[in-house]
Amino acid sequence: MKRFEDSMTSPNNKHPDWAESLYERLAEDDEGRVCKDISDEACQETPGNFLYTLIANTLSSLADKLASAKTTLPWLLLHLGGPSWMLSLLVPIRESGSMLPQMLIGALVRRQAIRKWVWVWGGGLQGSCLLLMGWVALVLEGALAGYSLLGLLILFSLARGACSVAFKDVQGKTIPKTRRGRLGGWISALSGGVTLAIGLLLGMLQNQDSSWFYAGLLLLASACWFLAALVFSRIVEFPGATEGGANGLTEAFKKLNLLKDDRLFRKFVVARALAMGSGLAAPFYLALARDDLGGALVLLGLFIAVEGLAGLISSPIWGRWADQSSRKVFSNASALAGGLSLLVALVSLLSLPSSLTWGLYLLCFLGLGIAHAGVRLGRKTYMVDMAGGNKRTDYVAVSNSVIGALLLLTGLLGALTALFSVQATLILLGSAGLASALISRNWKEVSG
């Protein structure tokens, strides 16, 4: 393992003392620079790259919370008089729309020796889409407003897919292997703190249901993305491999053979697919809570605040653990999410006092937020550590594309099941989460 003991005094050191000190505190790297799995020249730039990545991704996470397809966009769509059937398309478009095209996007990214610019341009495009959504909120109404929002969300999701592939590759080239989990943990913690503040603010602004209010949220989210793109452009990335990036759709489909030929990767994709309930279950928690406790913006604000609190208190712990064993983080988080979904389904079927029900729903939602943070961080860290170079790009593209397709199918199945029973949907998602935990326990250890 390479270490740069004299990085603070080297004449080639470009980072101010405060940046070096802050990096050492956040990354717990105060006994000599750890440079596992990155080049010597990239190691010299680690403090600045760590901080730029932290700031850029915190801003992008804040933008995601302000323009969430689970809260802000549905409320805006209904406020503008859009067709109610469009509500069921928002989350699938937001998630699968960024995943499905990644086999093609991955091939394009591989052609770039410097890949941070893919993220920068993708971030700028996402900011532009949110800016136009703010215009829609002020100008359009009815079905036209709904179709416009859906169209912009599709474009937004495609840009998000490009950013997803590029980020993992840039991170793999610029951040030491044993510090990636800590970085992800701090990103989730900072965005979680902001989410907590947003939830509390929503509870206080419960009478601000106007087009200008929603437009303001979207414009602020847009500004966050533009600023994030600017910060990310400051990352110092050195040229990487570009082989294998010349083929388009044919080459992308050839990569699907990884699912057949690579046993470790196949087990990863299967477990990840079964763990999707950690993200899909949240709306059903809210639906059952609304049925039992009534609908109010204050209640929604509390759930958003609790989600932020979950990220704030859990992500640094998950991140440190992920550097030691991302496999265990993913497995335990999947088990927690699955068990909580089964518990919420049971609670909703019991006739409990409302005072007790309030606490149970919020506590379970807090647990789900903690579990989802662990699932996301565990599988992201495992993906980056599992492979290097262009193979990492192929893994990201194929797994996200497959998961995107399964997400659409799961969403349709969940919608059909919810027509009969929301509890049945949670039981289905919870059982899948427990199965994911069992499968991932047998993954090969790749972290640490």
TrEMBL record:
Pfam family, one: MFS_1
GO MF annotation terms: transmembrane transporter activity
Coiled coil stretches, renumbered: none
Stretches that traverse the bilayer: 118-138, 144-163, 183-205, 211-232, 269-288, 294-317, 329-352, 358-375, 395-414, 420-439
UniProt keyword terms in alphabetical order: Membrane, Transmembrane, Transmembrane helix
Protein name according to UniProt: Major Facilitator Superfamily protein
Species whose genome carries this gene: Marinospirillum celere
Classification of source organism: Bacteria, Pseudomonadati, Pseudomonadota, Gammaproteobacteria, Oceanospirillales
